[in-house]
Amino acid sequence: MNNKEKFLGEFEQFLLLAILKLADNAYGSSIRQLLSDTINRDVTIGALYTTLDRLEKKGLVTSRMGEATSERGGRAKKYFTVSAKGQRALKRSKQALKVMWQDLVLNQHQSTFC
Amino acid sequence: MNESKISNLTPPRLATRFLHWSLPRDLRDPILGDLFEEYQQQIIEQSPTSANYWYRKQAIQTAIQFLQKTKRGLLMFIFSLLIFISLTIMAMVLGGSIYMFIDVPSLLLIFPPALFFSIAVTSWQDLKNTFAFIINNQADQPSISYIRAKRSMSVMGNVGVIMGLFVTIIGWVSMANHIKIDDFADHFGPAFAVSALTIMYGTGLKLVCYIAEMKLQSLSEQ
Q1: Is the pTM here over 0.80, yes or no?
Q2: Residues B74-83: pLDDT tens digits?
Q3: Where are the domains of chain B?
Q4: B30 vs A contacts (CB less than 8 Å)
Q5: pLDDT for B80-115, tens place per residue?
Q6: How far apart are CA A76 and CA A70, in angstroms?
Q7: Higher pLDDT, A10 or B135
Q8: CA distance A46 to chain B (A)
Q9: In A, residues 32-51, which contact B (CB 8 Å cutoff)?
Q10: Is A80 helix (H, G, I), strand (E, B) or coil?
């Protein structure tokens, strides 16, 4: 791994995983809904798009505009897909966490490691 | 609530307009569409009142997030203008009283002529464009639009200064003709102060116009 390929932040990982789970239906609202339902994380639409924009600039996701529909007030959706680079970054972060967690057991009562 | 009633409900207009104004052009459709979609859901699941509250909260938080990116120039412009105005007011207050610096006839001799000359030399549309370009930080218009907008600010500022000097000289001529040695000490000071106010208004206007001109210049170079 070169120095430029840093690990993903927690929220970035959540977003990439949500996009992968939603497959062809990953757009702002559905991603927000999934994060709220599955991990109880309520993010503003602005925070979501700011992070998605950053991920797109890094080449970790790609986007395309959909059709305008009446149930959205005649406005188009922006669909997101995780790129190959994004999938590699996710795997790398998962692997790093796995290595860090290895041989560690959390003591539930005292919150210390044993 | 039935379907037809829900479709008649639209999100709060002011919040939508504010958000639309603050978003980058390419994100307007996706973000406003997502919020509209979720707003309809909120009405079904909760009530129109809580949906409106939710929508306003989302719109304001999102707008604030994007304002720093899309309207940075405008925010800095407003910030510098506020600093200029507060420092001017502070100087006036420290100078004695703010009322010493307010004279309605002098204001009428500077601002309306500056505005009318600016419209006469360029056009009302150019003046409107000036405000639109600065407020929206628009840098994608044809360069001729910026040249014309800059000209309207240049004419307005220069007319302000020249009118200020012209009216001050008229004041001096009038003072010199009417003042008598007996009441020189009582009347010269106040009369001179009023005559100098037009220069002050003119140079103040020129300063603001100059900043607007430079802002337009940098927008045209982007």
Answers
A1: no
A2: 788 888 889 9
A3: 3-70, 72-221
A4: 27-28, 49, 65, 75-78
A5: 889 988 998 898 888 888 888 888 999 999 999 999
A6: 9
A7: A10
A8: 4
A9: 32-33, 44-47, 49-50
A10: strand
